[in-house]
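2024-03-11 09:14:02 INFO receiving multi-entity request
2024-03-11 09:14:02 INFO entity count = two
2024-03-11 09:14:03 INFO echoing inputs for audit
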Amino acid sequence: MSTPLLEVDDLSVRFTRQGQEPFTAVDKVTFNVAPGEVVGLVGESGCGKSVTSLAIMRLLARRGNQVTGSVRFAGTELLTLPDAAMRDKRGAELAMIFQDPLSSLNPVVPIGVQVSEVITRHRGENRAVAARQAAEMLDKVGIPDPTRRLKEYPHQLSGGMRQRALIAMALACEPRLLIADEPTTALDVTIQAQILALLTDLVEQSGTALIMITHDLGVVAGLCDGVNVLYGGRIVERAKRHPLFAEPRHPYTGGLLGSIPRLDGDRDARLFPIRGSVADNIPWDHACAFAPRCHQEGEKCRTVAPDLLPDEEARTDGGLRLLRCHYPLTAADRQRIEEGRA
Amino acid sequence: MSRYIVRRLLQAIVTLFVLSLLLFAWLRSLPGGPVSALLGERSTPEDRAALEQALGLDQPIFIQYLRFLERAAQGQFGVSTGVLPGRDALEIFLSRFPATIELSFFALTLAILLGIPLGYLAARHRGTFLDTGSVLFSLVGIAVPVFFLAFALKYVFAIQLGVLPPSGRQSVGINATHITGMYVLDGLLTREWDAAWDALRHLILPAVALSSIPFAVILRITRASVLEVLDEDYVRTAQAKGLRAATIRGRHVLRNALIPVVTTIGLQTGALLAGAVLTERVFTFRGVGHALAYGFETRDYAVLQVLIMMAALIYILVNMVVDIAYAAIDPRVRVR
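2024-03-11 09:21:47 INFO inference complete, emitting structure
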């Protein structure tokens, strides 16, 4: 294992909005990303995955957001970096693509300008050179007739095209780390597959590390080396991809997997959804936040907050696993989920 | 684009035609009339009848309207009976128009130059003293009636402090050559710097008074619009690209935020024309508004008809220009 490119240590984000109770959206999240590695942050809406990525990029408004902990990128601490130095890194060494390609593109500026402005900014190229490189970039992400597209506006492009343009912007300066925040959620299924294939290709070719933020375990299965499952702002389970799918240990992970319909299973088998919603969260202080929705709930769950510990009982091979649960799933539990009986 | 402009112009002709009909009926339904205004309350019925006949006011109203249309088609808009008796009404408009253009131009420029930056700053520093201060200031701008503000400015700066002239467009003693009728521009064209400076000093108070409403409206729209744009995803994208603050501000925030502001500026020309009537009256600034106010007092039908129709035409034209400017800023509304 090479030395990590990104080390996120005890990263916490507290929303301190006026007239509202402070709310911890991200709670001591710790993970590393090695060069060329694809790491997934998985969880449902509101679990803190997007906030984590925005905190790493330092894109959260300073007002109302308290960010603590440490984010080291190639040895440099990002959280205390002066704004100007951080701006030099954003777009050049760390880049990000967002969920909704239409709203993420400026409607009144041609695509070409939006791609080439990153190049002029970070490479100091003049407009003509930047425009040529922008066209090359559009070609690389599979946009046909790039020189014509440069002059077009976002509303003239299709959804998939727009996401490709955003990817072109993010990769224009060959960043060492790319954060993709639900890049395929707003696209239809066939386009999703194309975009994911494109991302995988580009990441493999350039050796760019990728943080993939998603609620879609299908995306994780196709792409990620390592997976972090988030719930209520904390990592509840971490594993390599194969062990996680083969042997989910946290009841939440089990629930996420159990709620996916399977083509190869019994057609009459019921899905095994996670009951309740994110709103049923309880604070982590003296309990497990997932307890109100958990099928495995035991006596300790509402009194003692579980720690994220190495999971030694896991039987699947594949490196270190971490787990935050008092009563992890056993083979028998998984059998029950498989059979669709609670 | 040219087809669009032609269509808009045709619409304008229909609008003006309907307006002329309403205006004609409305003016004649006002109490009093040019005859009472000219002859006074104690005139004899014989004199009144004679004058009515001379002015053609003894005819039924639809006959009057048809005769008005007939003459208007030949470019004749009637003769003034009250503002400048005997002068051609259109000529009065043309002679007064440059003064109002000059005043409105200065007022609108002032409103834009102050309103947009202040609105932007208020949004950027939301919730701070700067923001609250600007919003309060703009509230005052909207709430205080234009004529009151005009009188207050005149009282403080012209009468008490004596730093600016209280009325008129140029000091009497100045020997100035007039080409366009816009005195500041004339002074600059003829290199009569003292005349230009004197005209500018006369413009300041009326322009400030007239700009108060457009300034306040532009400030508030800019603030609201910038606040909205700052929350847009594409601004976050721009930040994620590590762009310089100036690029983000100019290319990504302001360019989008200005779209509703441009529309507002077009609509404000209407308010500007209405405000000009009050401002020009207070400062005896002899423009269209001044003539309009006097035209009402003397029930000068011919002058009122020309002035109001022209004001409507200008309003229509300005909004057409605004729509074209809108297409230049926002590619999504461009005609394909």
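2024-03-11 09:21:48 INFO post-check: The interface with chain A takes residues 232-234, 236-244, 247, 251-252, 255-256, 259, 329-332 of chain B (CB under 8 Å).
2024-03-11 09:21:48 INFO post-check: Chain B has two domains: 2-73, 93-333.
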